[in-house]
């Protein structure tokens, strides 16, 4: 038989096996048994007919023959990789119910197959599991039998290779090679022994080549040197050859499979792909360090399918925009990261803008990008909130290379600081499908409600219209910039719309199929099969030959549990639980049982459902703990849980709040009514796996990256009642949009955390069944319609009139008038403007005439010009973001108090230095600003929030808030203490979001009335919006809050500490940031008294700030010399003693402290082997990086001041640090 015939026969055999219904059914049975075993180990009595060993052999065959055909470049490559993926999954499923010895081998096979098939994230997960179960990473193999030691070294290096742990690969291989060199002597002495086998020589040689190959691989991952990579493959081939000669078929097979991985690795390698598709980038030392750092710090050495598609479509080199339409957890954030870095390195002054719709997402993205880009010397800042702004935020803005912010902030910046955008190279728009938020279609409106009524309730056209106007204006303002538009949940027709709107060349959206996301998703349905037993049935898995879907029988049971209470007679109380007709109780029990396998998210359509589920979770856990049936000790009650979220909940909500009670069991809640500090702490601790279960509404559905194993769907509909004019209640309902549902489901099975996530519907009623059928199909997503297009439709259908829209369009049209972007009196000109927006693209596709919308805009513009004839005043009104009538109301209030305000201004400007007037606003000025804004439509409290503060004296609450009164005091003294949730919602909606916007408008109009620029107002006035937002009446505390300090207590103390050190300090933003960045750890502990959680947050913020440009300059090798003082000498007596011996010109030793709990970039300074202090923090960030790169770094003392006891001076030593 010739080779081609043999390969053809092999290919045919694979296809016959794949199409064999018995084989496929056996695989489905394996999966079903794996699921049942995972949830009910040893408890299921289901009879399966597959042969365990036979399935294993078939999977070995799929792997080996597919590798053979890949090597020979025979048959369809994608088909062969799909075969290997099938083997990977089957090995993984078999491992779930195998014995321990078989389990390790099966998991190894699975990890290898995932690597070959291109699912690196899954391979990482499986390898981590192997390491946890079968290897002790803390212990390097100890001396013993040669074969035993070699095997242990091989296993360690092999697992590190699969996990891409570059550092560990280097360490283990280095140790292994040293031991092998020693073994050579031992073996050479045994040659003349009668029992000596030549196979021992082959085996030792094989191990030597294996470890040298692994060492070369790690070097390639750090350098991108292709010669090293080729040498790596050659050594691995020699290793395989020698293992075969030694008769060790197991190691020979594994090494041959590693060779297959390396053959495909070259197609996926970060270095090789950047070199092929953007080779000029590798000339930049920033990119070389970035790729090295990805490998060394994050174990990223190859791209996923999604990222390869982006790079191969010239994401890194093209000036055109891109639309990224990929499922959640497919690698979209990394694509954005690559695009940002390509833009930043394209020009020295280039900046990037990242627009995210929600605070939680802004916080997450800023944290991620800062962690990556700060190591390169780039500054990443965030701005959250609405239209408020101050001069310090302007400083942060101008310093940032990357700004992560909300659409409202970008709109405000474009209105007030248009020149800022001239240097923007790339604009990322994340969760872009939210562009249709705010305007309901006729189908979306609750029955009996009109669009005009909905607009009146929300007072604006919504965030979608704002984003569409904003992007259209940005396109006109900076046509040289490009957009990266990202969405996980929109149909293909919409991706084509966005390509036509944003891209200058014809192209397709960057798209991958949901099946290509790294982790699998299974869709299950829970229902009670009897009065006492409920099961999960999996809806999207193939049916078994019996016709059944895979299922888990008797997953939860209704039975008697101890409640933890006593009966009136003193006996232990028991209760039947859960009620099979109660969806919240059922969902709670499901969540607890599923938490054993990983983090669980319980989704509820509305807040009252979320609270109900949370309360039932607490009861369920209490009952299970009392009955000694908790599935995991992680859910056991703790009286004082060591959680930041618990600390924040006690402060903001009190001990009696359901969330505070739930946190005793490590169960969290995430929904709209929570204060931001509580919500942020919950996000971080759930992300860190410190909370096991999280109950949430759709506040977590929009892009936030959380490691969820299972999403339980409690409800998909929202119901509420409203009273008619005659007092009769009317019940309204609406269903969750399917794309929002799938966005939430995307949380299940995060890449790199899980190989599989599951979504479980809870079915109690027949209506639940109908909804499940409707939502389980991901192919029926709603179209993403432009908000302006929906307004156009409403005009065409006469559901709203042009005059109705005047008060809602005018704030957007004011911006167009001020920017002179379009002649709003010319309807044809307006129509042309609309053609450049999404509404134009969609109107053309759907053949809807744009004239009604253009006419409405012209009518509204004419009304504005009539109302505000003064062009200068119109520009001021435009800068506020408020509607014309609101600006006029503010102007009227200013006129009423104008003389008092002028008198206050004169007092401020005539006082040289009085702390209270220089750094704090007067109660009078705060009250005047509040009066001007309090009744504006845009400032109204959401109709779903009730006010329970001082009747007729809301200002007393505002004043106490701004003056820093503790939350508990405000809640207990100025609010109904039983309405703590309404209090936090009131603060979030009216105080920290809306009023700062209104006060910013007040100041803008006041400056105009005073004949001044906004920046010429007293600095303390300029900070009033931020003071209201952050709840502090101190400029420096505002600055601390703007840097990211979320605790008011911490911000107030930081502000006071800075003022104490600089009592006559001019307002120097740069000095404050430098001071904060360089705060010594010991100083923070001694001068600032806060909780451990607040300290941790403070260190995290401080450590993430990049100050100055020296870091970038060093990386680009523009400077090799840095000067720094030795800090923190005086905090330890022994340091003072040693420092006194230092003289000018002495050599000082610098050492990394990677395990420093407060600062991982700390660099200690020693003299004669004894520590005297630390390199100043802003310099240490640079030095630590250079030391990690292996560069030669030397330091000498250049100036020494000895201790003078009478002057009580600290020792002072300055250093010159040279980088070679």
Automatic annotation (TrEMBL):
The keyword Nucleotide-binding applies. Residues 313-508 form the Helicase ATP-binding domain. This is DEAD/DEAH box helicase. CDD domains: DEXHc_Ski2. Keywords: ATP-binding, Helicase, Hydrolase, Metal-binding, Nucleotide-binding. GO terms for molecular function: ATP binding; helicase activity; hydrolase activity, acting on acid anhydrides, in phosphorus-containing anhydrides; nucleic acid binding; zinc ion binding. InterPro entries: DEAD/DEAH_box_helicase_dom, Hel308_SKI2-like, Helicase_ATP-bd, Helicase_C-like, HIRAN, P-loop_NTPase. Residues 584-792 form the Helicase C-terminal domain. It comes from Synechococcus elongatus PCC 11801.
């Amino acid at each position: 038989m010739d080779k081609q015939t043999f390969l053809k026969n092999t290919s045919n055999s694979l296809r016959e096996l794949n199409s064999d219904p018995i084989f496929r059914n056996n695989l489905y049975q394996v999966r079903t048994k794996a699921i049942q075993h995972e949830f009910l180990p040893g408890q299921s009595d289901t009879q399966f007919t597959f042969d365990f060993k036979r399935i294993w052999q078939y999977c070995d065959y799929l792997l080996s023959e597919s590798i053979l055909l890949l090597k020979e470049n025979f048959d369809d490559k994608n088909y062969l990789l799909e075969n290997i993926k099938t083997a990977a999954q089957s090995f993984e499923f078999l491992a779930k119910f195998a014995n321990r010895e078989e389990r390790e081998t099966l998991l190894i096979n699975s990890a290898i197959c995932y690597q070959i098939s291109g699912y690196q994230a899954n391979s990482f997960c499986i390898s981590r599991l192997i390491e946890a179960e079968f290897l002790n990473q803390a212990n390097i193999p100890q001396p013993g039998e040669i074969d035993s030691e070699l095997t242990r070294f091989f296993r360690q290096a092999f697992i590190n290779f699969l996990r891409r742990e570059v550092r560990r690969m280097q360490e283990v291989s280095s140790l292994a090679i040293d031991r092998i060199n020693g073994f050579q002597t031992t073996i050479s002495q045994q040659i003349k022994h009668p029992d000596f086998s030549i196979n021992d020589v082959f085996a030792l040689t094989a191990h030597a080549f294996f470890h040298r190959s692994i060492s070369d691989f790690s070097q390639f991952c750090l350098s991108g040197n292709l010669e090293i990579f080729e040498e790596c493959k050659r050594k691995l081939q020699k290793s395989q050859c020698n293992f075969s000669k030694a008769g060790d078929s197991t190691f020979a097979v594994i090494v041959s499979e590693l060779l297959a991985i390396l053959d495909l690795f070259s197609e996926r390698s970060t270095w090789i792909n950047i070199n092929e598709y953007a080779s000029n980038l590798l000339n930049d030392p920033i990119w070389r360090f970035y790729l090295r750092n990805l490998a060394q710090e994050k174990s990223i050495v190859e791209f996923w399918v999604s990222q390869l598609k982006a790079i191969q479509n010239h994401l890194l080199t093209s000036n055109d925009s891109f639309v990224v339409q990929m499922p959640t957890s497919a690698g979209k954030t990394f694509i954005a990261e690559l695009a940002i870095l390509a833009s930043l390195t394209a020009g020295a002054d280039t900046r990037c803008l990242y627009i995210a719709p929600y605070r939680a997402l802004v916080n997450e993205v800023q944290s991620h990008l800062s962690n990556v880009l700060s190591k390169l010397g780039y500054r990443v800042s965030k701005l959250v909130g609405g239209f408020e702004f101050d001069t310090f935020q302007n400083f942060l803005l101008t310093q940032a290379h990357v700004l992560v912010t909300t659409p409202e902030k970008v709109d405000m910046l474009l209105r007030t600081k248009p020149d800022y955008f001239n240097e923007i190279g790339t604009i990322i728009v994340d969760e872009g499908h939210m562009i249709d938020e705010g305007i309901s279609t006729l189908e979306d409106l609750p029955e009996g409600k009109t669009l005009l009524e909905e607009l009146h309730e929300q007072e604006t056209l919504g965030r979608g219209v704002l984003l569409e106007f904003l992007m259209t204006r940005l396109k006109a303002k900076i046509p040289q910039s490009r957009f990266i538009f990202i969405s996980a949940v929109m149909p293909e027709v919409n991706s084509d719309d966005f390509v036509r709107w944003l891209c200058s060349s014809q192209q397709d959206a960057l798209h991958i199929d949901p099946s290509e996301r790294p982790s699998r998703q299974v869709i299950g349905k829970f229902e009670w099969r009897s009065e006492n037993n409920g099961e999960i049935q999996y809806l999207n898995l193939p049916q078994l030959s019996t016709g059944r879907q895979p299922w888990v029988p008797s997953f939860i049971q209704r039975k008697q549990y101890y409640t933890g209470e006593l009966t009136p007679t003193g006996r232990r109380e028991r209760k039947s639980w859960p009620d099979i007709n109660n969806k919240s109780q059922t969902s709670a029990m499901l969540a607890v049982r599923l938490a054993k396998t990983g983090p669980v998210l319980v989704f509820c359509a509305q807040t009252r459902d979320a609270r109900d589920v949370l309360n039932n979770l607490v009861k369920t856990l209490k009952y299970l703990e009392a009955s000694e049936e908790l599935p995991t000790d992680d859910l056991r009650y703790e009286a004082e849980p060591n959680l930041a979220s618990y600390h924040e909940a006690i402060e903001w909500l009190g001990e009696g709040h359901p969330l505070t009670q739930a946190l005793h069991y490590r169960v969290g809640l995430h929904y709209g009514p929570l204060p931001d500090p509580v919500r942020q702490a919950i996000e971080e601790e759930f992300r860190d796996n410190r909370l096991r279960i999280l109950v949430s509404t759709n506040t977590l559905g929009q892009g936030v990256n959380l490691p969820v194993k299972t999403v339980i769907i409690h409800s998909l509909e929202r119901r509420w009642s409203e009273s008619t004019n005659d007092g009769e209640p009317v019940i309204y309902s609406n269903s969750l949009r399917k794309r929002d549902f799938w966005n939430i489901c995307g949380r299940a099975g995060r890449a790199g955390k899980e190989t599989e996530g599951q979504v479980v519907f809870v079915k109690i009623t027949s209506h639940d069944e109908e909804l499940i059928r409707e939502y389980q199909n991901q192919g029926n997503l709603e179209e993403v319609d432009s908000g302006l297009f929906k307004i156009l439709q409403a005009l065409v259908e006469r559901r709203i009139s042009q005059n109705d829209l005047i008060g809602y369009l005018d704030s957007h049209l004011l911006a167009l008038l001020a920017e002179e972007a379009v002649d709003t009196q010319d309807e044809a000109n307006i129509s042309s403007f609309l053609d450049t927006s999404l509404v134009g693209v969609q109107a053309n596709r759907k053949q809807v005439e744009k004239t009604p919308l253009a006419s409405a805009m012209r009518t509204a513009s004419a009304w504005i010009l009539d109302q505000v004839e003064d062009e200068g005043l119109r520009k001021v009104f435009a800068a506020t973001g408020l509607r014309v009538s609101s600006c006029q109301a503010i102007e009227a209030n200013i006129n009423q108090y104008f003389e008092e305000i002028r008198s206050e201004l004169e007092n401020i400007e005539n006082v040289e230095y009085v702390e209270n007037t220089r750094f704090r606003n007067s109660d009078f000025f705060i009250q005047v600003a509040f009066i001007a804004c309090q009744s504006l439509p845009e400032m109204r409290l959401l109709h779903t929030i009730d006010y329970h503060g001082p009747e007729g004296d809301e200002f007393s609450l505002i004043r106490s808030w701004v003056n820093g009164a503790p939350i508990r005091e405000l809640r207990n003294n100025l609010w109904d203490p039983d309405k703590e949730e309404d209090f936090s919602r009131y603060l979030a909606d009216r105080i920290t979001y809306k009023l700062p916007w209104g006060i910013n408008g007040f100041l803008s109009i006041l400056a105009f009335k005073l004949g001044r620029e906004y920046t010429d107002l007293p600095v303390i006035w300029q900070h009033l919006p931020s003071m209201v937002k952050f709840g502090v009446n101190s400029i420096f505390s505002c600055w601390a809050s703007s840097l990211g300090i979320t605790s008011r207590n911490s911000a107030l103390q930081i502000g006071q500490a800075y003022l104490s050190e600089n009592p006559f300090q001019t307002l120097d933003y740069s000095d404050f940031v430098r001071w904060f960045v360089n705060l010594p750890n010991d100083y923070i502990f001694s001068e600032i008294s806060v909780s451990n959680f607040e300290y941790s947050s403070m260190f995290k913020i401080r450590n993430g700030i990049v100050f100055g440009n020296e870091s970038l300059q060093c990386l680009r090798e523009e400077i090799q010399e840095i000067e720094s003082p030795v800090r923190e000498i005086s905090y330890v007596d022994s340091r003072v003693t040693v420092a006194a011996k230092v003289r000018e010109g002495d050599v000082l030793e610098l050492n990394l402290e990677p395990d420093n709990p407060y600062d991982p970039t700390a660099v200690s300074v020693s003299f004669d082997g004894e520590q005297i202090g630390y390199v100043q923090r802003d310099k240490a960030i640079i030095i630590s990086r250079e030391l990690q790169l292996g560069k030669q770094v030397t330091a000498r003392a250049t100036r020494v001041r000895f201790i003078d006891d009478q002057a009580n001076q600290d020792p002072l030593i300055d250093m010159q640090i040279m980088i070679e």
